[in-house]
Amino acid sequence: MIGLALALILSFAPAASRAQSLIRDAEIEYALKRLTQPLAVAAGLSPERVRVMVLQDSSLNAFVLDSQTVMVHSGLLLRLESAAELQAVISHELAHIANGHITRRLSNMRSAGSAAAMGMLMSLAVAAAGHADAGAGIAMGSSSTAQRLFFAHTRAEEASADQAGARYMARAGISPQAMVKVLEIFRGQEALSQSRQDPYIRTHPLNADRLRNARGYASAYSGAVQSDTQADYWFARARGKLGAFLQNPRYTLRRAEKDKTAVGMMRRAVAWHRTPDARRAMAEIARLEAARGSDPFVQELKGQILLESRQFGPAVQAYARAVQMAPKEPLILAGYGRALLALDRPAENRKALAALEKARARDPRDPRMLRDLAVAYARTGNNGMASVATAERYAVAGRMKTAAVHARRAEGLLPRGSPGWLRADDILAAAEKLKQR
């Protein structure tokens, strides 16, 4: 069962079909940001604005969600074997952004509010990956075929992104040969029936010319490759934590049994927690603290394990230390607020509200945080803002009809023209525009 830090949210697929969810975890997202930054600079994009996020799906795919967000399937991240291979995937997707390949597709989204746009784009992404049923209920007025094609690229766009991506990798000192290795994973997929293909092939057409050209780019741009142990380290942390939470804990324990590194300790802590065996999990956390005591993500994981073990007071203390170490990290702030809410005392509820409001200011598209924020508002007597936060949570998940119900309730409880009222009004306006499509 995935815990609080590695939250599975934005679940779109109905019970009868395979769910896809956005995985939110501060450590994984930080690691991916570290791997992305040099490529974003090489592509002429803002490294602070570009983000890479993980969609829980065992199939192999990656795609651009909007002009700032790259999505990577968990299955692909776990399949790749090196930081350079993951950076090859990211570099290719950044090339689609830098080359303007998604501008036309996003043009119809601009009239929607940001909360609604996230839900629409995520639902289209799920359908594009081959799960047309998962996009049902999103008022886009497009067929499932159009949804599946929304994130697809032409062969010309793929060739352009391959060449630009290889160039960005070379500028960042990363071997473009990793791009060839990634493409070789998918070699032969186009000969399969569509039902057996990984969605990468449907959204990123692959043929012999493309692979041959990629080998040429790798040869042409291979001059300034640098060894980057930090990239390998952060890749190991992201991949290791993702696998520890998604794979069978017994499998993780076998694979990490003799791993004496901090990553090995973290994997064992997560695996024992999921077994569940809180005593052994905390023993690994103690070893991890001794090795990396100033690491905020260690304290965050400790807080998560304590919170899910219903040790609420110690969980608050661990999260508080994590916040001290990383005061601007929204997912850590959200975890701190969640732990404070678990105590359910007036003073702690007020502290939780302050932490969750800070988290929302930095990342307003986190549904789990919005759910907790609604609880904090309700416990502190502000039912109007509780309805606003609930409306935003449903809007982010693409459930605009339900979001509108809570937004109308919020408008009835808040002063007209107040910040909360305006946020609710934005959701109602977006819902109305979607209904007209």
UniProtKB/TrEMBL annotation:
InterPro entries: Mito/Outer_Membr_Metalloprot (IPR051156), Peptidase_M48 (IPR001915), TPR-like_helical_dom_sf (IPR011990). The keyword Oxidoreductase does not apply. Keywords: Hydrolase, Metal-binding, Metalloprotease, Protease, Signal, Zinc. CDD domains: M48C_Oma1-like. It comes from the Bacteria. This is M48 family metalloprotease. Its cofactor is Zn(2+). Residues 31-216 form the Peptidase M48 domain. Residues 1-19 form the signal peptide. Binds 1 zinc ion per subunit. GO terms for molecular function: metallopeptidase activity. Belongs to the peptidase M48 family. The keyword Metal-binding applies. It holds the Pfam family Peptidase_M48. The lineage of its organism: Bacteria, Pseudomonadati, Pseudomonadota, Alphaproteobacteria, Rhodobacterales.
